[in-house]
Amino acid sequence: MTDQDDKQDLSSLKMILWLVYLSLFFSLFIYALVILVIPPPEEFVPPEIARGNPPKILIILGFASLALVPILQNLRKRMFFEPLGEECYPGSTEARSAYFTMSLTTWIMCELIGVFGFVVHFLTYEPFMAMPFVVLAAVLMGWYRPQTDVAEE
Question: Where do the TM regions start and end (predicted)?
Fold first, then answer.
């Protein structure tokens, strides 16, 4: 493979990474918009949140979201950065492929936290209970944005 082909592959990878990233990132804004705009149906009976009895699913999804934060960090380290340091990738193509896979996995897990918020909204119709999930997902997506300089190395 020539140097020109390598540069073209890299620019193609960068474009695809940013396209996928922005698509997933802006879907979080759609979740937030739906959470803020959709009112509860007339026959909806709210859970007893005001009395201090949140639904168990809310507690489970909250803990799952908080647990995903260190899992993401550890997953990224084990999936890409440790093998990169040990020079386990025979060439730049394999390293870029691993970076692409690691990025997609990370963003999908961040998106999952936003989906948790979406589910919480339709269970409780309380925007203030659902929005923290979407905000956490957006913060993590911002933190794990594509690092094209890492893909170049």
Answer: 16-37, 57-76, 97-122, 128-144
